Amino acid sequence: MKFKENKLYLRKESSTAIIKKNFPITLIAFSFLAITVSIFSFAFFVNSENISTDAFAQNLDPVDNATGNSLALSTLINQGSPYYGNQTAPITIIDFSDFQCPMCKRHVDNTEQQINSTYVQNGDVAYVFKHLPNRGFDSMPAALAAQCTNDQDKFWQYHEVLYKNQGQIDSGWANAENLKKFASQIPGINMEQFNSCFESKKYDDLIKSDISLANSLGFTETPSFIIVKNDGSNPQKIQGPKPFPIFQLEIEKISKE
């Protein structure tokens, strides 16, 4: 008696053999894919804002000390730059920002509050504001209006109001009418004095000087920061709305030098 060849069994056996033969190749391919995904995931993490301070340290470029006393706290205050904190604080943070800048608002709402509570309130850091109005047509009027409130010691209140009410760039939220309206919301402000200052563009030269200083430091985007000793020495710069640990790293490093 002849038995028929079981072709189905042979096909299964053949398939199994092929799978066994190709299994090492498949394993290697999956391993390569996993490694590739891990590399790209790590790269994404390194470029995110939640990165470790060590990885960011290489991006904190030192500033040429030739800037000298132009970054000293006493000089900045005498120029009329708004600030808060103790004038004798050993370290100064200089913030170059635009009231229409969404990333500046992000910094104000998060990192600046941590800097204030951790370093400014205990006298270790003074915080200075410099104007860099380059986001849109309404950025310069907003800067002029804010600087006018500094005449009445109302700058930081106005600063808070502007960022709280920030809208889309050049959408009209920071037009002249609204800038006056926001000023009128500040308790105790003299609106006649404010309007006179704002309409005459009293601080046009001061703001242009801030822009020139920013450009000399290589800043073209907002927010940008200088962390420096009280006398203007040992300046370090941070560009972009970095998280608090990045500022903490630089503050602690400068305080030890």
Description of the molecule:
Helix 6 (139-150) runs antiparallel to helix 7 and helix 6 (139-150) runs parallel beside helix 8 (176-184). The protein has helices at 7-47, 53-56, 73-79, 102-109, 111-120, 139-150, 155-164, 176-184, 191-199, 204-216, 244-255; strands spanning 83-84, 91-97, 125-131, 224-229, 236-239. It folds into 2 domains: 1-47; 53-255, Glutaredoxin. Helices cover 53% and strands 10% of the residues. The chain has a 5-stranded mixed sheet, sandwiched between helices. The chain is α+β, with helices and mostly antiparallel strands and 257 residues long.
What structural keywords apply?
257 residues; alpha+beta; Glutaredoxin; 2 domains; 5-stranded mixed sheet; 11 helices; 10% strand; globular; disordered N terminus
Brief summary:
Helix 6 (139-150) packs antiparallel against helix 7 (155-164).
Radius of gyration: 29 Å
Helix count?
A: 11
Please state the overall shape, judged from the principal axes of the Cα atoms.
globular
Count of folded domains: 2
* Protein structure class: alpha+beta
**What's the average pLDDT?**
82
Mind describing the biggest β-sheet? 5 strands, mixed
Give the second-level CATH assignment, the architecture of the largest domain: 3-Layer(aba) Sandwich
Fraction of helical residues: 40-55%
- How much beta, percentage-wise? 5-15%
Task: Trace the largest sheet across and list its strands.
Answer: 1-3-2-4-5
The tally of strands reads: 5
